[in-house]
Specification:
Strand order of the largest sheet of chain B: 4-3-2-1-5
Shape of chain A: globular
Distance between the termini of chain B: 54 Å
Largest sheet of chain A: 5 strands, mixed
Oligomer: heterodimer
Structural class of chain A: mainly beta
Order of helices and strands of chain B: HHHHHHHHHHHHEEEEEHH
Helix content of chain A: under 10%
Low-confidence stretches of chain B: 1-20, 86-101, 268-277
Shape of chain B: elongated
Number of domains of chain B: 3
Number of helices of chain B: 14
Radius of gyration of chain B: 27 Å
Number of strands of chain A: 36
Low-confidence stretches of chain A: 1-24
Distance between the termini of chain A: 22 Å
Largest interface: A-B, 87 and 82 residues
Strand content of chain A: 35-45%
Number of helices of chain A: 2
């Protein structure tokens, strides 16, 4: 086959596909304006100048090293945003604006911290001239995008309860959607909408219900519910037509020793649909009822406008930390597909709602239970990708075993009350058919460990990090590795792509350094 | 007492300084690079752990995604064992101090003084335990409704407290105490001691708390374990209770024995990586399209390159091409296959059997 012809067909197809999406924030080619590139969470670039036939000519165009001393907390986990040729990204307590064409620093903002977990920051949100980001010490901060000067700061959580901020805010109209992180103490998770002009609260959605509210029947008592966890670690996706945001929620608390919270523990580890203007819950689906393994179901809820049995459907898909892949009708929350994307050993089957049925024997035990996946999970925060061209869902997956123990035999365990230890794991990049949940291809990495985000493009490419510090480009249809660059550190965020002045860029972070690759060959 | 509080606040500020700083020592830069990708320095500070325990923790981290080169692994473990914990110069902060909670919570969080917490326990037992329970997690089911006090570990008054500065004013307003004494009569010292005790109970619930340890894994049947060892598990194909496993139970405590047996790689099974803490590395044989096969300890393998160290100590590296044959040999392949085969009962039985090999 001649690639030119295929490329032209793919481009036409891409245009046709996007023509169908009535999303005002449809994927632009000269920017990357949200954490996931667009509201859908697909992380698909319609650009094809870098493609399967020429990716071996991809060149390093620039390098930007953050020089904050590196080391602890210093890895770039943020997906950068690109607007008007300027790239914005973060690590905890720091925001940068750099020239997306050259990597030259424009400004650098440093936040004076009062503490909090500095494990990572996923990036900024942008609306007009204003940048929004969260800090480990529980603030939402707005900066001037041109100057990097602070506009205002608002406290969004209580650091004394060991909450912290890490997610990249999502901007919809005048809503700044912010989530909270933290699972050291038994505290409730929530999502908030803040006014983009003032930072004032517009609405507040609690992950766990109050006594008497729907879902409260899945908890033994009000105290367990009020301290039941369910953090909102990652950026939501959004369907403008439905005016609905979608997200997955985190683990219930106490994390491992669950005997004080008998029941399904809604709406922890759930995929939920919320009205963007009110925060009102529309529906829920729970990947892990009553989880005791720290398997947050926070992985990106990817919106797919696809077909099922030949009929157009509005879908939402998640490759969840517990090893299961779910496809739901996003207008109703009804399950369409449940499958294992890696082999697991913790469930006895799937119930009529499509939710896995946990095997009590694989809950953590005093003498240990061998469980797969391990606490790190089959997937974690690094974002997946969906290509409307190949109709495949791409995920950097892990198959792992560890032994889960109960440590706290108290009548009322608190905090964690147990943990997992040891382990064996293997890692692979998978392409999943969303209609069946079957793995179409799996490219097993030669080493284990390491996770990275994934990008798919109209150039029939998938970009992902491997465990050996390589950024790898694979054929999106077949999974064949086509190109790599060893970056010396593991890919630590999700790669992005955009076009400026006719040149397609591919930008990725590894540790404390941002790398700009480009198709410089004419 | 004010002076004492000030001193403790100073101690707190020292803890802040430690936030960004690991102690100097051989391997510090490697630890910062390997662990610092995900963790603040606090996650390791004050952890009094042996080299063997650090070995397990760091191997755990590899399975959770840490990127650690083979050569770096022992250096990381050595650094942590030597430089972190109460035995280290400069003093770590274990149970008595700031919890090693991975940096969660505020910089100015309450730093527990163990002696003060002990005194506070006495106050607590005399005045509070009936209603708030022995672990301060609230009264149990058997306590009459009229005496049921709330969980103090989850109390916002306690969480916002530093050295009694919110607990004190709360108690001065008047709060029933079990001795009948007026709560306003508690001295400043008693309040501060009580605050230390409550913060200690709070720290105890954290992942790094003193109770985060495996309790009892010896629940299996040694005879059934021996039968599995010699039968379905095919362990006796490679191991012997009078040979390599003789006295194994003297070397390891039961939880470690369980981990060693299920995950002997000790490295989280980094397929394609050499072993460090064991004499059984993953090996590889590389055969070029033309030329002799070369075998050695696998150093690195990905889709594009392979490298090894041969028996003479030479490092060799190749670009992977269709003509280059690469054969990996993992000495623990049998253990990996067992992960999909054995039941938890098999595991517990085998551990019980291994425990008899003293």
């Amino acid at each position: 086959m001649t690639f030119k012809k295929t490329s032209a067909t793919l481009t036409l197809l891409a245009t046709a596909m996007f023509g169908q999406v009535p999303d005002p924030a449809k994927p632009p080619t000269d920017s990357w304006p949200t954490y996931n590139g667009d509201y859908s969470g697909r992380r698909f670039s319609p650009l094809a100048k870098i493609n399967a036939s020429n990716v071996d000519s991809l060149s390093l165009a620039w390098v930007y090293r953050i020089n904050t001393g590196g080391g602890f907390g210093g890895a770039i986990k943020a997906t950068p945003l690109v607007v008007d040729g300027v790239m914005y990204f973060t690590i905890p307590d720091h925001v940068w604006a750099i020239d997306a064409r050259t990597g030259r620093e424009i400004w650098h903002y440093t936040w004076e911290s009062k503490g909090g977990m500095h494990i990572g920051n996923r990036g900024v949100g942008i609306s007009g001239n204003w940048i929004f980001f969260e800090t480990p010490d529980c603030h939402l901060v707005s900066l001037n995008a041109i100057t990097g000067k602070e506009r205002w700061r608002k406290e969004i959580c209580d650091i004394d309860q060991m909450y912290f901020g890490s997610m990249a805010p999502v901007i919809v109209g005048n809503h700044v959607i912010v989530g909270v992180s933290g699972d050291d103490l038994d505290i409730p998770g929530y999502l908030e909408s803040r006014d983009s002009e003032t930072g004032d609260l517009q609405w507040h959605w609690n992950t766990t219900p109050k006594a008497g509210e729907p879902g409260s029947e899945t908890w033994p008592n009000a105290e367990a519910m009020n301290h039941g966890g369910g953090m909102t670690w990652l950026s939501s996706t959004y369907d403008p037509e439905m005016k609905t945001i979608f997200l997955g929620t985190g683990n219930p608390q106490p994390v491992i020793a669950g005997k004080g919270r008998k029941g399904d523990n809604l709406f922890t580890e759930s995929i939920v649909a919320l009205d963007v203007d009110t925060g009102k819950l529309k529906w829920h689906f729970q990947p892990s009822p009553h989880d005791t393994h720290d398997w947050d179901a926070i992985q990106t809820t990817v919106l797919i406008d696809g077909t099922i049995d030949g009929q157009p459907r509005k879908l939402v898909a998640q490759a969840s930390r517990n090893g299961y892949f779910f496809v739901l009708d996003r207008t109703t929350g009804k399950n369409i597909v449940t499958s294992q994307f890696v082999k697991t050993n913790w469930a006895k089957g799937v119930d009529r709602k499509g939710q896995p049925i946990a095997d009590p024997a694989k809950e953590p035990q005093l003498d240990g239970a061998l469980v797969s996946p391990n606490q790190g999970g089959a997937a974690n925060w690094p974002p997946p990708s969906y290509s409307p061209l190949t109709e495949l869902f791409y995920i950097n997956a892990t198959r792992a075993f560890s032994i889960y123990y109960i440590y706290d035999t108290d009548e009322k365990p608190e905090g964690w009350g147990g943990n997992d230890r040891g382990g064996w794991s293997e890692s692979m990049l998978e392409a999943i058919d969303y209609r069946t949940g079957k793995v179409r291809w799996s490219h097993k990495w030669e080493a284990a460990g390491g996770r990275s985000g994934v990008l798919s493009t109209a150039g029939n490419l998938v970009f992902a990090g491997d465990p050996a510090n390589n950024l790898v480009a694979l054929n999106a249809t077949t999974g064949d590795p086509l190109w790599h660059a060893n970056l010396g550190n593991g890919v630590s965020n999700g790669p992005i792509s955009f076009e400026l002045d006719g040149t397609q860029y591919l930008v990725v972070a590894a540790g404390d350094t941002m790398y700009g690759f480009a198709m410089l060959r004419k | 007492m004010r002076r004492m509080i000030r001193l403790m606040l100073v101690a707190g500020s020292i803890a802040i300084d430690c936030r960004a700083q690991l102690p100097d020592g051989a391997g510090k830069a490697i630890v910062q690079k390997a662990c610092g990708t995900c963790h603040a320095a606090e996650i390791v500070m004050g952890r009094a752990m042996s080299k063997e325990q650090w070995n397990t923790v760091v191997a755990d981290m590899v399975t959770k995604g840490a990127k650690i080169a083979d050569a770096d692994f022992p250096q990381i473990v050595d650094y942590l064992a030597v430089n972190i914990g109460p035995q280290a110069a400069g003093g770590g902060r274990g149970r008595g101090g700031r919890p090693a909670g991975g940096g969660a919570g505020p910089s100015d969080m309450h730093v527990v003084n163990a002696a003060a917490a002990d005194r506070g326990r006495t106050v607590y037992i005399a005045q509070c335990v009936t209603c708030h329970g022995p672990t301060a997690r609230g009264a149990g089911d058997g306590v009459p409704e009229s005496q049921k006090g709330p969980d103090l570990v989850r109390s916002l008054t306690v969480l916002h407290d530093r050295y009694g500065n919110t607990v004190g004013p709360y108690l001065r307003k008047g709060h029933p105490m079990q001795s009948g004494r007026a709560s306003a009569s508690l001295t400043t010292e008693e309040v501060a001691d009580l605050s230390h005790f409550l913060h200690q109970k709070l720290n105890d619930t954290l992942r790094s708390g003193p109770y985060s340890k495996v309790l009892n894994v010896l629940t299996g049947d040694p005879a059934a374990g021996a039968a599995y060892f010699n039968g379905a598990g095919k362990c006796s194909g490679c191991h012997s209770p009078t040979g390599d496993l003789a006295g194994i139970a003297k070397k390891f405590d039961p939880p470690t024995l369980q981990q060693q047996f299920v995950f002997p790689q000790g490295r989280g099974g980094r397929g394609g990586r050499g072993q460090v803490s064991t004499a059984k590395p993953v090996t590889v044989t590389v055969t070029p399209a033309s030329g002799a096969a070369v075998s050695g300890v696998l150093i690195a393998l990905d889709d594009f390159n392979v490298s090894l160290r041969d028996s003479s100590g030479d490092y060799k590296s190749w670009k992977r091409t269709p003509g280059l044959k690469v054969e990996k040999h993992d000495p623990f392949q049998g253990h990996i296959e067992l992960l999909d085969q054995y039941t938890d009962k098999n595991i517990h039985d085998v551990v019980a059997y291994l425990e008899t090999l003293k």
